[in-house]
Amino acid sequence: MFYPLLRRLLFSLDPETAHGVAMAGIDWINALRAGALLAGPVSADPVEAMGLSFPNPVGLAAGLDKNGEHVDSLAALGFGFIEVGTVTPRRQPGNPRPRLFRLPERQALINRMGFNNAGVDRLLANVARTDFVRRGGILGINIGKNFDTPIERAADDYLIGLERVYALASYVTVNISSPNTKNLRELQQDEALDALLGEIASARSRLADRHGRYVPVAVKIAPDLDEAQVQAIADLLRRHRMDAVVATNTTLSRAGVEGLPNASEAGGLSGAPLLAAATAVVGKLAAALAGELPIIAVGGITTGADAAAKIAAGATLVQLYTGFVYRGPELIGEAAAAIAGARHRPDAG
Question: How many CB atoms lie within 10 A of CB 232?
C-alpha cells in the first residue's frame, strides 16, 4: 500500500508540521482524482441515526480538520460523515508548540492543542464552499468555548456557536470534555451540565423554528468517568432530549504507555491505549440510555475489529482519528467492512 511509505516520510517530521503536509497531500490527490492511491473501496452500509441517513457508519472525528479546510478531500476517502472543529466563537492560537506528540510503540498520540482554530466565521466560509455540503453529505460541526471565556459564562460561547453553525450543520456536537481547556470538564458535573443542556435545548428549539429545520445536537464526553457519573450524564441527556452522545474524548490516564518517550507530556492521550476505557464507557452509556439516544463511539480504533467492538458495545456509529493517522485511509474501508460483517451475521442481535 502507498500509505505506509507516506507515513514513513510524515513521521520524519514534527507531528504538527506532518499534519499540515498530510492534509495538503490529500487535497492534491483529490484534485487529481487519484484517491485510489490512498483509499480502497468502502462498501455502502446505510445507517439511520439522529434522524439522518448515513451512507456508512464510519466517520471522521473532530480535531483533524479544525477549520473545515479539507472536507471534500477527506470525504472522497470514503467516510460516511465528517465532523469538523472544534471551533470557538473567536479565533484563538491554542497552546504553545510543541503540543502534539507521537507514541508510535503503542499507535498513540498525546495532544494539548487547546482548541486552536481560526474562529467560527472562517470555518463557515470554508464549509459553505464544499461540494460535500452542497450534495447533502453529513457534516457535524463541533463547538467549544474560547479559552478566556470564564467557565461560568461558557454557555454564552456554546450558544453563539450553535446559532452560527446551525444553518450549515447536519448535526452539532457540544464539546465539554477536552482536557486542554482549563476547567472545561467541570461542565460534565451534574448542576453545570443540567444548566448548559437546558440552555442548549431551548436554543435548539428557537433555531429550528427560525430556520424551518431541526438540527440534532450531540454531546461529547470524557472517558475518565466512573459508572455513577456516566449514569448521571445519561439521565441529563435524556431529560433535555439531546440527540446523541459522542464517547469519548482523549484521556488523562497514561495506562499502557508508562515509561515510553513522550508519555509524560501533558495533554490528552488517544489511540490504541484508549480502546478499552472508551469502549467501556460506550457499554455503560448503552445500558444507561437503553436505546433512547444513539452513541457515536470514538477512541482507540486501529483495526476493523476495534470498530466492530464499539458497535457490539452499543454504539450506532464510529469515528476515527488517531488510528487514521497510523493506519491511513485503508482503515475506513476495513472498519466499515468489519461493522457490516458483524451486523449481518446470522447470530447478530
Answer: 18
Annotated active-site residue in 73, 170, 177, 178: 178
User: In terms of Cα–Cα distance, which of 328, 152, 173, 196 is closest to 244?
Assistant: 173
Q: Is 49 helix (H, G, I), strand (E, B) or coil?
A: strand
Cell output for 332: 475506513
H helix intervals, the chain: 2-10, 15-31, 71-75, 120-128, 131-134, 154-165, 190-211, 227-239, 275-289, 304-313, 322-327, 330-343
Statement: residue 39 has pLDDT above 80 = no
- All three cell numbers of 312, joined, read 457490539
Question: Do residues 144 and 92 make contact, with C-beta atoms less than 8 angstroms apart?
Answer: no
How far apart CA 308 and CA 311 sit, in angstroms, is 5
Q: What residues have CB less than 8 Å from 143, skipping those under 6 apart?
A: 85, 86, 87, 88, 120, 157, 158, 161, 162, 165, 172, 173, 174, 175
User: What's the mean pLDDT in 249-268?
Assistant: 97
178 is known as an active-site residue: yes
DSSP state of 98: P
For 289-348, the pLDDT digits (tens) are 999 999 999 999 999 999 999 999 999 999 999 999 999 999 999 999 999 998 776 665
Block residue for cell numbers 508510535: 104
DSSP notation for 129-153: T-HHHHTT--EEEEE---TTS-GGG
| 254/139 Cα distance (integer angstroms) | 32
| pTM tops 0.90, yes or no | yes
**Degrees, nearest 5: CA angle 5-270-104:** 35
pLDDT in tens, 227-236: 999 999 999 9
Rg (the chain; Cα; Å): 19
The predicted structure's pLDDT at residue 187 = 85
Instruction: Give residue 240's identity as a one-letter amino acid code.
Output: H
Q: Which fold has domain 2-343?
A: TIM Barrel (3.20.20)
